[in-house]
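Record 1 of the preview.
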Amino acid sequence: MNHNTDCIFCKILAGEIPSYKIYENDHVYAFLDVAEDADGHTLVIPKKHCRNVLDAEPEELSKTLAGVQAVARHYVKDCGYDGASVVTFAEPCAGQSVFHWHFHVYPRKNGDGLFVFPKFKKCTRSLSAIQKLLQFS
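->
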């Protein structure tokens, strides 16, 4: 696999840093987040180093998402959870702090009070103006 020697997640993959493994296949590795901010907070990373979703190759996108789905399904089907929140960030302005693409998977229970989605204020433009700006031509 393609590894970056300065990347903390690549060091985890290489066994240089210990982790609490949850799942692994040929393409992804899933482990508990050491932040210990929510029970079961899991990180799913591709074994091939890439910065984030913006530079991931299409094949890597597919394989990584399949791993994310496997973890989330396992939590619901086998571990007694009701659902899962799945989040990824691209670049510092969006909240990315580790520059090896990863997904956060939070196993969820109905009524758990965990709020994962950020609270936004309000659009500063009309939806039609935003559409004109963002629409593929």
